[in-house]
Specification:
The structure holds 2 protein chains of 2 kinds. Helices cover 47% and strands 21% of the residues of chain A. Chain A is of the alpha+beta class. Chain A has a 6-stranded mixed beta sheet with strand order 14-18-19-17-16-15. A 5-stranded mixed beta sheet of chain A has the order 6-8-9-11-10. Chain A has a 5-stranded mixed beta sheet with strand order 20-12-13-22-21. The radius of gyration of chain A is 34 Å and the shape is globular. By secondary structure, chain B is mainly beta. Chain B has a single domain, classed as CheA-289, Domain 4 (OB fold (Dihydrolipoamide Acetyltransferase, E2P), Beta Barrel). Chain B contains 3 helices and 11 strands, in the order H-E-E-E-E-E-H-E-E-E-E-E-E-H. In chain B, the strands form 2 sheets. Chain B has a 6-stranded mixed beta sheet. The chains are: A alpha+beta, B mainly beta. At the A-B interface, strand 21 and strand 22 of A face strand 4, strand 5 and strand 7 of B.
Chain lengths: 713, 151
């Protein structure tokens, strides 16, 4: 079977499952008795196995199979979760990730069998299960067999090896009423479980066809998983339902089995006794008058329960558990869309906004005073703005997908660095543009590693300093206006300014004189220079000098900025500020000379009217004193080589912009107003202009340039 | 077979005028020819880069061929045109005084230009084409749009 077309989906889903497993196993490490987590892990491992098998990745399948075995034992209470088990499981996940990387690169899983790992996994199974394990298993099998054969007595087509999963369906009262009513009216109620072939790829479609086949001959009361989940393919290889019909069971069976890729289906008539709600006396009376044959079926069920060993009870109790965890991700209706399609959509919205802007400017020059046109344009404006916001939201994904991998990383670091540390994260749900989220992972990882390696002290030192021997690293993400802030904070040593200073002098980055006069803040910022690492020992975690400068350039490439605050002995905080979106921004349009420029609204602090007499000079540079803070002035007309339209003694319009906590005043000739602009690249031929970050097309079709205010500091 | 050979040995050129001289531009790189329009100046870039224009929603840089080739400053007239050239690294417009015609030249009609290596000049020409009307210098577009400047 050619499965290459499903490769993308397989990769995506496998990644999700692996991420899930990582998180869940971490949870399990914290609370080894968490039954929900164990069930969830089992399910994820099982899905992974199924998917790998379908795609023909045998090695992956074997490994996941062994993992699944371990979990099935854990689930049955045969073995307990232990620290070494968690370690082995993490190694398995790493191995699976390697497979995945191989598959992604070459569509082949590679030749690594991971036999040592599988031995370890099987080793986990042995000590606890030796001796009485096998007989127990047999008993379980016997018990289930009994139940099946007895229950199958009135349905010959039943495959005795298939469990009747519809028995697990929890019926609510209304469903029961419907079924009782149907039985009273002489209709038949069947419990049906359908098993899809393991090789089946379009499970949801098969399930849909089954429903389609059943609908003309009767009515489906309930199904597990729900129809919605089935449509979303949120089920393993089987689904169950209750079905009311007046047809015989073989008619029903034929209808189901006509659908291809169905491995097996079991249908069994349900009697009132099975609908018996606890404590419902009315129903109980009715149950008593059911036929003897049906009594048998009911009895057999209780008989099974009586004869079963504790394991059976456990499997039975764990079954509803499993169902619960299946329905846990509730109704999450999503569509996977190629990011390229979204880019196209975003471009079209940009075009629309440009068209709208030109309509606006055309209407503004139109002197006929037609108010109707203006109203319509205003309406159009609100529609395009909403459209833009919606498309942007579609592109937004929670930052969670990136943050998820960090707890695991910190755990590993904690072991390899021999430091105790905890990672606390908040704001995982904060959303960012997909392209930003894809890029932000590496810089954040660098910062966290940096905190773990350089920031946190060894447990001994921490104790001496009266700190908790377990270090804390915090990662907080939150939205702040049109920006998203991500803070990486630790309660470690902080940055030692003197060490940085000496290092900088040693490396020839600054001279001794410069170092004397440099404020601490500037010295800390030296850390962001390329090839600057203060780690005394080069570890494989950090210290190769490729850390912070990479962080800085990556973040600046995303139009963001990064700053550090640090207090020696108390810890440091790295703050990353990122724009919500990269394509369309709110900007202030200004005139400089007779040219128009756009300044991103997010960098603007205030706009001031300054008279020339207020200008002072400090070190031959023009500054103004604005409410107590001294702000350097930047005359845009000189920076941009144009002649100002204003005379020397006229009062000046100054746009105060900020970069981190630095401010600067940009002198412009005139303000034109705020506008939503679409950022366009200047192309490769004009990449050298540093003070211009891009261009935009104005309503009249003219091109205006966007000032990169960060470059003016 | 013969026909194919014929095809491959001829090339179409657009003949443009810069001052009094005529130049040929290989048609395969030309995306579009537009009238002169407002060019937004980009500060702090090479002088020959005149700025950017809006071409149906795309921002495209425009350079002056005359300045690039060390000729006198452009005189904008009614016949001034911007030729949009498409390359792998993006589109770029070049300003020319006039676009005259399209000609087809056989390779036999083109003489390769040999330069004296002692001359420390950038060579913008890839050859000289001979037509009934006279000589046409064929521009080497890769050199024209590259960032090297005439010394």
């Amino acid at each position: 079977m050619d499965v290459s077309q499903y490769l993308e989906i397989f990769l995506d889903e496998t990644k999700e499952h692996l991420q899930n497993l990582n998180t869940l196993i971490l949870n399990l490490e914290q609370s080894p008795e968490d039954m929900d987590a164990i069930n969830e892990i089992f399910r994820a491992a099982h899905s992974l196995k199924g998917m790998a098998g379908t795609m023909g990745y045998k090695r992956m399948q074997n490994l996941t199979h062994d993992m699944e075995n371990v979990f099935s034992e854990v689930r049955n209470g045969q073995i307990k979760v232990k620290a070494n088990m968690i370690d082995i499981l993490f190694q398995c996940l790493d191995a699976l990730e390697n497979y995945l990387a191989n598959i992604q690169a070459t569509s082949d899983e590679g030749t690594e069998n991971n036999e040592p790992l599988m031995k370890l996994l099987n080793g986990l199974l042995e000590p606890e299960t030796s001796g009485d394990e096998t007989p127990k298993k047999e008993k379980v099998q016997n018990a289930t067999k009994v139940s099946d054969t007895v229950a199958a007595s009135d349905n010959k087509s039943l495959d005795t090896k298939e469990p009747k999963k519809w028995l697990d369906i929890k019926l609510d009262e209304s469903a029961k009423d419907v079924m009782k009513e149907a039985i009273r009216r002489g209709k038949k109620v069947y419990g049906i479980t359908v098993f899809v072939q393991e090789s089946c790829i379009l499970k949801a479609a098969r399930a849909f066809l089954v429903f389609k086949a059943l609908e003309p001959i009767g009515e489906i009361i309930v199904s597990v998983p729900s129809t919605q989940d089935i449509e979303d393919e949120k089920f393993d290889l089987d689904f169950s339902m209750f079905f009311i019909t007046d047809k015989d069971s073989d008619v029903v069976m034929r209808a189901i089995k006509n659908v291809s890729e169905i491995r097996e289906a079991i249908a069994e008539e349900v009697d009132k006794a099975q609908l018996l709600p606890s404590g419902d006396e009315d129903a109980y009376e009715e149950a008593e008058v059911t036929s003897a044959k049906k009594h048998n079926t009911g009895d057999s069920n209780t008989a099974v329960a009586n004869t079963s060993q504790s394991q059976v009870q456990e499997t039975q109790t764990s079954k509803p558990d499993k169902k619960n965890s299946v329905s846990k991700p509730i109704v999450n209706r999503t569509v996977r869309v190629d990011i390229e399609k979204l880019d196209v959509l975003m471009n079209l919205v940009s075009e629309l906004i440009i068209a709208k802007n030109s309509l606006v400017s055309a209407a503004a020059t139109d002197t006929s005073g037609n108010t109707n046109v203006n109203e319509q344009i205003e309406y159009l404006e609100s529609v395009t703005t909403n459209l833009h916001e919606s498309v942007m939201k579609v592109r937004m994904v929670p930052i969670e997908s990136v943050l998820n991998k960090f707890p695991r990383m910190i755990r590993d670091l904690s072991k390899s660095l021999n430091k105790k540390m905890e990672l606390y994260m908040t704001g995982e749900e904060t959303e960012l543009d997909r392209t930003v989220v894809d890029e932000i992972g590496d810089p954040l990882m660098h910062l966290l590693r940096n905190s773990a390696d350089h920031g946190l002290e060894s447990p001994e030192v921490r104790k001496q300093r009266g700190k908790n021997s377990v270090g804390s690293i915090f990662l907080d993400a939150y939205q702040d206006g049109n920006n998203v802030i991500i803070e990486v904070r630790d309660d470690g040593n902080g940055i030692d300014v003197d060490v940085v200073k000496n290092k900088a002098i040693e490396r020839g980055v600054i001279t001794v004189d410069q170092a004397e006069n440099m404020p601490d803040k500037d010295i800390i910022n030296l850390l962001f220079l390329p090839s600057f690492s203060t780690a005394k020992v080069v570890s494989d975690v950090s210290g190769r000098g490729v850390g912070l400068d990479v962080v800085k350039s990556k973040i600046e490439a995303l139009s963001g900025e990064v700053e550090v605050r640090s207090k020696l002995g108390e810890g440091s905080t790295f703050t990353i500020r990122l724009p919500l979106t990269l394509a369309i921004i709110q900007a202030l349009m200004v005139d400089v000379g007779n040219e128009k420029y756009a300044i991103s609204l997010s960098s603007i602090q205030t706009i001031e009217d300054i008279s020339p007499s207020e200008i002072k000079t400090v070190q031959a540079k023009e500054v103004i004193n604005l409410r107590g803070s001294v702000i350097p002035l930047v005359r845009l007309n000189t920076v941009l080589d144009v002649t100002s339209t204003k005379t020397e003694d006229e009062s000046m319009v100054v746009v105060i912009v900020k970069k981190g906590d630095k401010m600067a005043g940009l002198v412009v000739d005139n303000l034109m107003g705020q506008q939503e602009i679409v950022i366009k690249s200047l192309g490769k031929y004009i990449s050298k202009s540093k003070i211009i970050s891009g261009a935009t097309i104005l309503g009249d079709g003219e091109v205006a340039l966007i000032l990169d205010t960060n470059a003016l500091f | 077979m013969n026909e194919l050979k014929m095809e491959s040995s001829t090339t179409q050129y657009i003949v443009i005028r810069l001052g009094k001289e005529q130049y040929g531009i290989d048609i395969k790189n030309i995306d579009n020819i537009v009238r002169m329009q407002h060019i937004t100046r980009v500060p702090k870039v090479a002088e020959y880069l005149k700025g950017v224009i809006n071409l149906r929603g795309e921002v495209i840089p425009v350079m002056s061929l005359r300045l690039k080739m060390n000729l006198s400053v452009d005189e904008i007239t009614k016949s001034t045109r911007i030729i949009i050239l498409k390359f792998e690294q993006g589109a770029i417009g070049v300003m020319v005084d006039e676009v005259k015609e399209v000609i087809t030249l056989d390779h036999a009609q083109i003489d390769k230009v040999t330069y004296d290596n002692k001359e420390d000049k950038v060579n913008y020409l890839s050859g000289v084409g001979k037509t009934a009307d006279g000589l046409i210098s064929i521009l080497d577009l890769n050199v024209v749009v590259s960032e090297r400047e005439n010394a």
